[in-house]
Amino acid sequence: MRGFAALRYNQILMRILITAGPTREPIDPVRYIGNRSSGKMGAALAEAAVSAGHSVTMVLGPVSIAMPDVRTTHVETAAQMQEAVLREFPRHDLLIMAAAVADYRPISVAPRKMDRAGKLIIECEPTPDIVALAAASKSPSQRIVGFSLEMEGDLERARQKLGRKKLDLMVYNPVATMDSARVQAVLLWPDGRNESLPAMEKRDFATLLIDRCAKLF
């Protein structure tokens, strides 16, 4: 069933699907391609959403930090995250794609741990663009928020992603945010508006973003 979960005291209560953490794309049974995402942003978003009365589901990559006590699907690879997101999204009003999905995965995975011997060349292919796939299937009553991790000041690249992926809101997220307790984000809307935010703790930013998400409806 799609549409708003409830309306309480003139406040929209949403069913929110949040992705968080990295993905790990295996090279062999021991090694993988990944990134330095800690999952802190996703955890802060889930906590802020629950505090505001929303229903939260998480699709969570491998992280070592404590996460909120919400309904959670644990995944490791981009393919597993894709399957979980596309399965869960139809039952939610809002998708916040805060996970740092690895952009590439090895084309072939060694069945046994490889010996260390000389150079290693790994041929890779792109991982699925999960947020774009979700956007292609969303109903008129659903909204999607993406995160664009970019070099300092590269807003144009984030805005291009917003339009290409057909999202409802894009969070420009500077690279320095990774594994940090603070973020200095810019919110980008499809109508061309930018909202530049001061540096703040991730938990404060999460509260602000959940409020902005409610206004998307």
What labels would you give this structure?
two-stranded antiparallel ribbon, Rossmann fold, alpha/beta, 217 residues
Give an overview of the whole structure.
This protein is of the alpha/beta class. The chain has a single domain (6-109, 121-215), classed as 3-Layer(aba) Sandwich (Rossmann fold). Helices cover 25% and strands 28% of the residues. It has an eight-stranded mixed sheet with strand order 7-6-3-8-11-12-14-15, with helices on both faces. Strands 1-2 form a two-stranded antiparallel ribbon. α4 (155-164) links the parallel β11 (143-150) and β12. α1 (40-51) packs across α5 (202-215). The longest helix is centred in the last third of the chain and has 14 residues, at 202-215. The two termini are 17 Å apart. The model has no long low-confidence stretch (mean pLDDT 91).
Helicity level: 25-40%
CATH class: Alpha Beta
Low confidence ranges: none
- How much is the radius of gyration in Å? 18 Å
What is the total tally of β strands? Answer: 16
What is the CATH superfamily?
CoaB-like
Biggest sheet: strands side by side, in what order? 7-6-3-8-11-12-14-15
Strand content: 25-35%
Q: Residue-averaged pLDDT, rounded?
A: 91
Q: Specify the overall morphology.
A: globular
Which series of helices and strands comes N to C? EEEEEHEEHEEEHEHEEEEEH
Structural class: alpha/beta
Helix count, per DSSP? 5
CATH-derived architecture:
3-Layer(aba) Sandwich
CATH fold-level name: Rossmann fold
Distance between the termini: 17 Å
| Biggest sheet character | 8 strands, mixed
Number of domains: 1
- Subunit arrangement of the protein: single chain
